[in-house]
Design a protein that fits this description.
436 residues; alpha/beta; Rossmann fold; Ubiquitin-like (UB roll); de novo design (two linked rop proteins); 3 domains; five-stranded mixed sheet; four-stranded parallel sheet; globular; binds flavin mononucleotide
């Protein structure tokens, strides 16, 4: 298996790749011309044959999603590229947006042709100021060259594209919150069904895909769906961008073939754990998945099934490595700060639970934990999971539960140390009701 197969990062290290003349010299927009020569349904067939799964986290089959779009509703079909990328530990889309924006635009145009969509939008994370500028300029250049506009490449097909900058809310990466935000309202998720493919942007059929997902489409058009399906492993075809951070000697964004061994990835691609330290654990998917201990990483591969079987998830492959010097209590406290800040507040269990859990983690970390705190956290997680409109609550509790379960000894020691020392001056009633 080749870890060096390149589909997405081929040109990102060319310093002039963001400029359309240079991108064209390296083949940009040739795949669009090929797509335009194909029946739109044929393009969908190729994407289905590729078995490409969405790279935004849920891994939903892309061709199947496109197939759900009604083609005779009489309503416009919209395509939205989800570039909100706000999950802690995830920074892979940023590389494509900044360094190969024409690949992103070409992927969107191929998808739009397949869906017979005449309007698309890139919803970019508010803090991504530089990627925003790069993509904005790239869209202008694509208009100047006739790849966008009323007559794309002289084909008679019309397609217009805009970029919209979010205001810095993680929840706006959730596809229906994104739609609310794009329609000018507060970014809070909608109930599903209906799913966006049927009733999305202003009630019209809308496909929402991740930046990385869409950037795979030109290669699939060029080489065929079967060739793509031949890369990687069963149920996880193609390559995967991994944003690797934490206690690594050479963190960064890497493209690996699906199925690449996790520990080999740390050693070969990321230069190993920093300072020769031992590995404590990995959060492999971006923060909203179960943490894996070092022992659990043995024999695991970077693909959907392997990580699922190991009890975690590939997610969007925001790979966070913690060495033996890490305090797991501080680590999960840091995540809980993020989630309590980012909960949109619409559902009571998520809004209240996120803050409450953060406070419990904080008091344990401060040395003010109480007996029953771990059980209280677990109880709160039970009350959040499955009781909210969107997956924010369901996935936020994964790191909480798994840190508490897998590093229970450290949590217990921190709580007991304090009890023995008798240092806490806190009112126990506050702990009972979980407030302070
Ligand atoms: C809280 C939350 C945040 C999300 N953030 C993102 C994001 O930043 N980018 C993204 O592509 N998908 C994100 N998703 C997933 C999207 O809802 C959606 O599944 C995805 O954009 C679909 O694209 P794909 O099929 O290409 O993966 C998020 C989901 C949730 C629940």
């Amino acid at each position: 298996m080749s870890k060096h197969k390149q589909i997405l990062l081929t040109n990102v290290n060319q310093p002039d790749q963001h400029l359309i003349e240079h991108a064209i010299k390296r083949g940009a927009y040739e795949r669009l011309q090929k797509a335009l020569s194909l029946d739109p349904l044929k393009v969908i067939e190729e994407v289905k044959a590729s078995q490409l799964r969405g790279r935004g986290g849920a891994g939903f089959p892309t061709g199947m999603k496109w197939g759900f779009v009604p083609r005779d509703s009489g309503k416009p079909v919209y395509l939205i590229n989800n570039a909100d990328e706000s999950e802690p530990g995830t920074f892979k889309d940023r590389v494509l947006l900044e360094r190969d924006p024409h690949l992103v635009i070409e992927g969107m145009l191929c998808a739009a042709w397949a869906l017979q969509s005449e309007w698309s939008c890139i919803y970019v994370r508010g803090e991504y100021a530089f990627p925003y500028v790069r993509v904005q300029r790239a869209i202008e250049q694509a208009y100047e060259k006739g790849f966008l506009g009323d007559n794309v490449c002289g084909s008679g097909w019309k397609h217009h594209m805009v970029i919209h900058r979010g205001a810095g809310a993680y929840i706006c990466g959730e596809e229906t919150a994104l739609l609310e935000s794009l329609e000018g309202r507060k970014g809070q998720p909608r109930l599903k069904p209906p799913f966006p493919a049927v009733a999305g942007y202003y009630g019209c059929p809308t496909v929402i895909n991740n930046v990385e997902t869409l950037s795979n489409i030109p290669w699939i058009i060029d080489n065929g769906g079967e060739a793509y399906a031949a890369i990687g492993v069963e149920n996880s075809t193609g390559t995967k961008l991994v944003s690797a951070s934490g206690h690594l000697n050479t963190p960064g964004v890497f493209e690996v073939e699906m199925g690449y061994p996790l520990l080999e990835f740390i050693e070969q691609e990321c230069g190993g754990v920093r300072d020769g330290n031992a590995l404590m654990g990995v959060i492999p998917g971006g923060s909203s998945v179960n943490v894996l201990t070092a022992e659990e990483c043995e024999g695991v591969r970077l693909d959907y099934d392997s990580l699922k079987n190991a009890g975690s998830s590939l997610g969007c492959a925001g790979f966070m490595v913690m060495d033996e010097t890490t305090d797991p209590i501080e680590a999960v406290l840091s995540l809980s700060r993020f989630y309590s800040h980012e909960s949109c507040g619409q559902c009571t269990p998520c809004r209240e639970g996120a803050h409450w859990i953060e406070k419990i983690f904080a008091r344990i970390a401060r040395g003010e934990g109480q007996p029953g705190d771990l059980e209280l956290i677990e109880n709160l997680c039970d009350q959040i999971g499955g009781h909210t409109i969107c997956a924010f609550g369901d996935t936020m509790i994964l790191p909480y539960r798994s840190f508490v379960r897998k590093f229970r000894q450290q949590f217990r020691e921190r709580i007991t140390q304090v009890l023995k020392g008798g240092e806490s001056t806190r009112n126990p009633i506050d702990f009972e009701i979980g407030m302070h």
